[in-house]
Specification:
With about 400 residues, the chain is mostly helical. About 80% of the residues lie in helices and about 0% in strands. Helix 2 packs antiparallel against helix 13, helix 9 packs antiparallel against helix 10 and helix 10 packs antiparallel against helix 11. It is elongated, with a radius of gyration of 35 Å.
């Protein structure tokens, strides 16, 4: 009997073990848990809350960086300006070097080729323009003398009545004074240069500043990918994609104005200069360059070009065909710039509006002088993207949509 009990004990124990192993196989009752409203972000993606924080942090960092740049310019302007000019040079020339690099050319060799090409282009332009400007400068005294002699009769013929003697006398005096000033401008400039050269420290500082810009620009352009990669490496890994997209938006806005307007200005300069030269207008090349590159400030270049061309037309009047040629030059130039040149060069990138550029140049020029004028456009481009990012994120918050409190 005792043996039977002992034999039954293991069986009971075995049954107990089987029962214990069978319990986990039963479907457990689900525990109540809160289901998130939005699914968790996939790898490499950000939730709306995270993206909002990253965008706001990036916007604050960009505004802080701009404030730091202007603070450094106000304290260390002599050092900061060459560095900024070199960075701007590297930014403008980087696409060309990148294209050469993609075609198998070494980065250093590509940078050398681009700098050599720019140097040859500048030397050729200087060698060509110096005789042209010298020839035009020789004409300036006679230009103003003829202005005082011819403008008044032509204005009287247009009005059909003589001008007052006082006005006639003043215009004649102004023409003579302008001619005398221009004739003495050469010796005066030579004296200023000699006086400036007498200060050795100032000459050395100016030459060093001019020489440092291309040297720094060469190294910045050569190491441009490393500089971008270094900045990108400081960004938190999950936010790299979004931050890179924001910088790409800044580049789109900035390049649409800077690179696009430089190209557009060169094309317009050639177009205006050729048209005015065909119309036999004095100082045609000078007026064409002013009107073309002055177009970077909206309406300023065209306005100056029209005024100067009208004055040159009055002084070199040869018939109504000149008026038609000058008017046709500016009409064709504006139509080509609006319907063909700018759409082809700038493309569909979102640039800066004319009003924004004018206000930015006036405001930054008033606050920071010539340096502020140079930095007005890039600063405005960055602030435009920052403002659009902040507005975009604000419109996705519960405060704007009214769907609930913003987390």
């Amino acid at each position: 009997m005792k043996a039977q009990v002992e034999r039954a004990a293991p069986a009971e124990t075995s049954l107990h073990v089987v029962k214990s192993e069978a319990e986990p196989r039963r479907a457990p009752e689900p525990e109540p848990r809160s289901v998130p409203e939005d699914p968790p972000p996939a790898e490499g993606e950000l939730s709306e809350v995270e993206a909002r924080r990253v965008d706001f942090a990036w916007s604050a960092a960009m505004v802080g960086s701009l404030a730091l740049v202007f603070a450094l310019l106000s304290v260390f302007g002599g050092v900061a300006v060459p560095v900024l000019l070199a960075l701007a040079m590297a930014y403008v020339l980087n696409p060309i070097v990148t294209v050469l690099e993609r075609r198998g050319l070494n980065r250093t060799l590509g940078t050398s080729v681009v700098f050599t090409g720019c140097l040859l282009l500048m030397v050729g332009a200087v060698l060509y323009l110096i005789p042209v400007f010298r020839e035009e400068a020789i004409k300036l005294p006679d230009f103003f003398r003829r202005a005082s002699e011819r403008v008044v009769p032509q204005v009287e013929s247009l009005l059909g009545r003589p001008l007052p003697d006082l006005l006639r006398q003043r215009m004649t005096e102004l023409g003579a004074q302008a001619s005398e000033i221009l004739q003495s401008a050469g010796p005066t400039a030579a004296r200023l240069v000699a006086s400036f050269a007498g200060n050795t420290a100032r000459v050395v500082a100016t030459l060093l500043g001019l020489l440092v810009v291309p040297v720094l620009g060469f190294f910045f352009l050569q190491d441009y990918p490393q500089l971008v990669g270094m900045v990108k490496g400081l960004v938190p890994r999950r936010a790299v994609g979004l931050v890179a997209r924001r910088f790409s938006e800044v580049d789109d806005v900035l390049s649409a104005f800077v690179r696009g307007q430089i190209t557009v200005g060169a094309i317009l300069s050639i177009l205006y200069g050729t048209g005015l030269w065909f119309a036999r207008i004095d100082l045609a090349i000078v007026i064409g360059v002013i009107a073309g590159f002055g177009n970077m400030v909206p309406y300023l270049g065209t306005g100056l070009g029209v005024v100067l061309a009208a004055l040159g037309l009055m002084l070199s009047w040869q018939g109504p065909w000149q008026l038609a040629a000058v008017a046709g030059t500016f009409v064709v130039g504006q139509m080509a710039e609006g319907f063909f040149i700018t759409p082809k060069v700038v493309g569909d990138k979102v640039g800066l509006s004319s009003v924004a550029v004018i206000i930015a140049i006036l405001a930054f020029g008033e606050l920071f002088g010539f340096t502020g004028i140079l930095l007005a456009v890039p600063t405005t481009a960055i602030l435009k993207v920052v403002l659009s990012v902040v507005v975009e994120r604000y419109k996705r918050t519960g405060l704007y949509t009214g769907e609930g409190p913003t987390p």
